[in-house]
Amino acid sequence: MEFEKEFSTEEQCQEYLFRLRWPDGFVCPYCGGDKAWHTGEMKLKCQSCKRSTSVKAGTIFQDTHKPLTLWFRAIWYVTSQKNGASAMGLQRILGLGSYNTAWTWLHKLRRAMVRPDRDKLQGRVEVDETMIGAPETDGKRGRGTSNKALTVIAVEVVGRKLGRIRMNNVESASASDLHMFIENSIEKGSTIITDGWSGYSGIEMKGYMREIHIANKQTGDDTVLPHVHIVASLLKRWLLGTLQGAWSKEYFAYYLDEFTFRFNRRNSKSRGMLFYRLLQNAVQIEPVTRHDIRKSRIK
Fold first, then answer.
1. Angle at Cα 286 formed by Cα 150 and Cα 29, nearest 5°?
2. Same domain for 107 and 128?
3. Distance CA 210, CA 193 (A)
4. Cβ–Cβ < 8 Å for 260, 269
5. DSSP character for 210?
6. Model confidence over 11-26: pLDDT tens digits?
7. Residue 117 forms part of a structural domain
8. Helix or strand or coil: residue 53?
9. What is the pTM of this model?
C-alpha cells in the first residue's frame, strides 16, 4: 500500500528518478551546466548548451516504451523476492504480454545489480574455482559437455563468518584469468587464501599475500576452503530453486551478478532499501539493448 501511494503516477516516478540521478541538483550530461528549464514530460533544456535531456536518458530506462510505474513495480517485485525472480513470474505478476519483454527486463535489472564503483573485497579472502553445470540440451553427459561454466569465487573471511563475495565465470583456470579476477575484485595488500593450484602462483608479485591450504590426505579432509565451498553450494541450490536449473552458459554471468547482489545484502531487513539501491544503480549505468544482452558475457 505504501509503495502504491508513493509511485502510483508517472510524475511521481520521474521525480524520484530525478532525485536519484541528480541528488545535488541538475548537471547537464553534455556540458556540465547546472541550470535548466523544464520543457514538458520531465525533459530539461540546459541553459548553457541549449541541449535537451530527460531523467531516463543514459539509464537502463532509456528508449523504454513502457511506463515507469510498471518498471518500478517490476523492481519492487524483484527486490521483494527473497530467493530471486524468474521471467515467467515477472510476466505473470505485471501482466506483460511478452515473455521476451520480462526476460529482457530481468537481465537489464541484473546488470544494474553491479554498482560501477563498488568497493573491492579486502582482508583475508578465500579464492577458488568450481564448475557449475546446467542441464545439457544436446543429450551429452559427462566430460566434454558444453553447457557448463567455470566459476571463480572470492569470499571475505571475517572471523568464522562469511563476509562479502565476488564471483565471475572465466574461460580457464589459467594464471592470466585468475589473476585478472583477483585484481578486479580484491584490494591489494589483502591475503589471498587458495589451494595449491598453480594458476594462483605469482599473485604475490602483484601486491597480495598468499596463504596456501593443502588437503590432508591422511584424514581425508579435502575441505581446505570451506567458505568458498559454502557459497558454491548455495549458488547451485539457488540456480536450481529459482531457475529450476534452466540457464544457459552465455548469460550465466548475469545470474552471478544477481546472486552476489542478494548474498551481500542477505542481512538487510528493509526491502525498501534494496529497492532504493537497485534504482540508484539503474540510473548510474549505461543503457543496454536486448541485442547487447544477448551477447555472451564470458571474458
1. 155
2. no
3. 6
4. no
5. E
6. 999 999 999 999 999 9
7. no
8. strand
9. 0.83
For the chain, give the number of residues: 299
Q: Are residues 228 and 173 in the same domain?
A: yes
> 153 has which bridge partners?
128, 167
Same structural domain, 92 and 49: yes
Please give the backbone phi and psi of residue 284, each rounded to the nearest 5 degrees, phi first: -100, -20
CATH assignment of the domain containing 162: 3.30.420.10
User: CA–CA separation, 290 vs 194, rounded Å?
Assistant: 38
Q: What is the mean pLDDT of the chain?
A: 87
Tell me the residue type at 16. Y
Residue labelled with grid coordinates 546488470: 111
Number of domains observed in the structure of the chain: 2
Contact 253, 298 (CB under 8 A): yes
Taking the CA atoms of residue 213, residue 219, residue 223 and residue 226 in that order, the dihedral angle to the nearest 10 degrees is: -90
Residue 27, φ and ψ in degrees, nearest 5: -135, 120
Grid cell listed for 178? 585468475
d(CA 230, CA 195): 16
**Cα(204)–Cα(160) distance, rounded to whole angstroms?**
25
Of the candidates 111, 109, 81, 107, the one whose C-alpha atom is nearest the C-alpha of residue 93 is 81
CB 193 within 8 A of CB 125: yes
Residue 63 exposure: Cα atoms within 13 Å on the Cβ side: 8
How far from the centroid of its chain's Cα atoms is residue 138's Cα? 29
What's phi and psi for 74, nearest 5 deg?
Answer: -65, -45
Closest CA to 228 of 80, 125, 132, 92: 125
User: What are the Cα distances from residue 206, in Å, to 188, 210, 289?
Assistant: 8, 11, 36
**Dist CA 101 CA 269 (whole Å):** 30
Render pLDDT for 97-142 as a digit per residue (tens, 0 to 9): 899 999 999 999 998 998 878 899 999 999 999 998 755 455 444 3
125 neighbors 153 (Cβ within 8 angstroms): no
Neighbouring CB atoms inside 10 A of 127's CB total 26
**What is the grid cell recorded at 254?**
548475469
Residue 150 main-chain phi, psi, to 5 deg: -80, 120
